Amino acid sequence: MAVYPVIMCGGAGTRLWPASTPAHPKQFLALTGEASMFQETVLRVAGVAGARQVVVVAGRGHGRLIAEQLAVLDVPAVVLLEPEARDSAPAMAAACAWIAGQDPDGVAVVVAADHHVPDPAAFRAAADQAVNAARAGHIVTLGIAPREASTAYGYISPGEAADGARKVAAFVEKPDAATARSYIDQGYLWNSGNFVVSAQVLLDELDAFAPEIARAARSAVEGSQAADGDAGLLGPAFRQAPKISIDYAVMEKTRRAAVLPVDFAWSDLGAWDAVHAAGAADDAGNVVQGQAVLVEAVGNLVRASQGTQVALVGVRDLAVVVEGGQVLVCDLAESQKVKAAVEAVKAKGRPARFASLAEAADWFDTWLRTSALPLWWTVGADHVAGGFREALSPEGRPVAAPRRSRVQTRQTFVYATAGLMGWEGPWRDAAWHGMTYFLDRYRRPDGLFRALVAESGEALDETAALYDQAFALLAMATLHEADPGHADLAGEGARLLAALQSLRHSQGGFRETGAHPFQANAHMHLLEAALAWMEAGGGPEWRALAEEIVELALARFIDPAGGFLREFFAADWSPASGEDGRLVEPGHQFEWAWLLTRWGRATGDARCAPAAKRLYAAGLRGIDPARGVAINALNDDFTPRDQAARLWPQTEWLKAAVILGKDPLPAATALAAYLAPAAWWDLMAPDGTFRPEPAPASSFYHILGACREITAARNLEQSF
């Protein structure tokens, strides 16, 4: 039986704010030395006797970070990236499913990436002993001999001897101080959350007690795909696993639970007082990282980011942490309460719920003018090579990536619209920066525009998607309206419309490239572009195009019985077969409702108002009442299909609510939750947490449209 070290990289380390963030949580920080906690863990477990390849399970947003830190160590590892966090039971199940597929007799030594064990040799000796018990069929957890009556850990009551370990008599939750003292008196152990188990045994126990997890894990491993570097992204079946810890899923139910009492130093470094206790203190008991001056200061922890100077005078027992423009000062004895401060920081700057349309509009207007527009022009634009960047990190730094044409046109639209809204910043420079780059780098000989270029400007993908042409037309129309006479954008638009005729479909509408040639989405944005040209003074050809798409939507895209809009169709514009034809996106229900209302008001088409109301009602079927957000997708019977919630459906919900005279405050509150000073969060997981990944520039188009709609409604309201 070979041994496979498994490192679990979940957890956000909220109590170690501001150093630990969702994008760079504590396991990837150097808290007690030069190496990060993850790197220390890799080196510790790679030395376990009989160890084969290290297996790492982590969130998909941390794949690149893991690859970088592993490369420094030159330790090979299998990295399994979760499409979304589902807690420890599904993560362990996926690791064991992978191990069992390689080696049916393999034993997993499962450890957390963020635990501090200063004596690696003692850990390895304990792991060896636990492996022997695991080979006898036990699920062994390491129980730490308590150093103090801590209320920060769960406890284990050890029972009778079992193959070199002890049976588990009871697992108990984190106690209060008095109960913790009684546990120590009774010989209880700290629950370390580390496990040693045969991969097949764990899967068998999951089959017995949590079969949904076992099925999802096996399917996710079988359906994994290549991701960052050598990592594999677990298949979509992983999202179906119940979100539950291994303690609740298996350990509290199985008869195989065992504990190995160990007596080496251990800490999960769960708060700043633990970091202080684990650090190298000076003669006055101060632990310092970074540049700091301490005068008559005793027993403090100081962590100052590069370029920051900190001075402490006459204070004791404080944590002073400075990172990325954020500062924490707290009593070390109150370190567990930092999480509450983090929640308050997240909420600061916006109400939990807006009280009025005017309050919401004022908040979005301020955020747009003072934060988002300046940031994406100064940092989000490439002032050397030209054009706009694809994304910004959660800290507001540019992300290197090839450049899609839709980003250039959407950012052009954003800044041209900002000019129309009266923004006093350099909207004209920004808009033409995007448009000039787009016309120079993306034009094909046939008059259509390619999809992708490298950061250096070379063509990478010649595909001329209808979707991308629609955004080119939208950007041209909006900039033509905002800055007429600067260039012949009307001529550019006319030439592109003529070139689009090559994408015509014989049974009406247009064909899209790719796997779904007959779809509503690309037509939706083409309708938006045609309406923009109508508003910008374009000729009758734009009204004719808009009318054609509206007719197609009313006759084909919208289900006549249900009043909802489907996404994919057959060549005759009947619903596509199979699951493709059942897809219903709440965000698109709202977006089409907004567009049809605009068309109806512009032309007097009486069919549009009732159709828009039914679409809006269909979109509301996709609002998750627990989180108050519009989810990504439904089936055509309105059962949830994808319960994650991207940012853009919230913007379309808000736009539709405003234009239809519905209550906009729930949608405004939902959208505001995604917006941060540096950028925005793009995806909320079903558990309400945001995926820690770069903010895509393409989302700004959606946000700007929502801001424009609600501020216009405020201005109209205030004019009476």
List keywords for this structure.
720 residues, alpha/beta, five-stranded mixed barrel, four-stranded mixed beta sheet, 22 helices
Task: Explain what the structure shows.
With 720 residues, the chain is α/β, with parallel strands linked by helices. Helix content is 41%, strand content 17%. It has 22 helices and 29 strands. Strands 5-8-6-7-11 form a 5-stranded mixed barrel. A 4-stranded mixed β-sheet has the order 12-14-16-17, covered by helices on one side. Helix 1 links the parallel strand 1 (3-8) and strand 2. Helix 11 (357-378) runs antiparallel to helix 22 (699-719) and helix 14 (466-482) runs parallel beside helix 16. The chain is globular, with a radius of gyration of 29 Å. The N and C termini lie far apart (79 Å).
What's the structural blueprint in terms of helices and strands?
Blueprint: E1 3-8, H1 37-46, E2 54-59, H2 63-73, E3 77-82, H3 88-102, E4 107-112, H4 120-135, E5 139-144, E6 155-162, E7 165-172, H5 177-185, E8 189-198, H6 199-209, H7 211-222, E9 225-226, E10 232-233, H8 246-251, E11 257-262, H9 272-278, E12 287-289, E13 291-295, E14 301-304, E15 309-313, E16 318-323, E17 326-331, H10 338-347, H11 357-378, E18 391-392, E19 398-399, E20 403-404, H12 405-420, H13 427-441, E21 452-453, E22 459-461, H14 466-482, H15 489-499, H16 520-535, H17 540-557, H18 586-603, H19 608-620, E23 623-624, E24 629-630, E25 633-634, E26 640-642, E27 645-646, H20 647-659, H21 665-672, E28 683-684, E29 695-696, H22 699-719
Parallel strand pairs: 1-2, 1-4, 2-3, 3-10, 5-11, 12-14, 13-15, 14-16
Antiparallel strand pairs: 4-8, 5-8, 6-7, 6-8, 7-11, 9-10, 16-17, 18-19, 18-29, 20-21, 21-22, 23-24, 25-26, 27-28
Helix pairs in contact: 1-2, 3-6, 3-7, 6-7, 11-22, 12-13, 12-14, 12-22, 14-15, 14-16, 16-17, 16-18, 18-19, 18-20, 20-21, 20-22
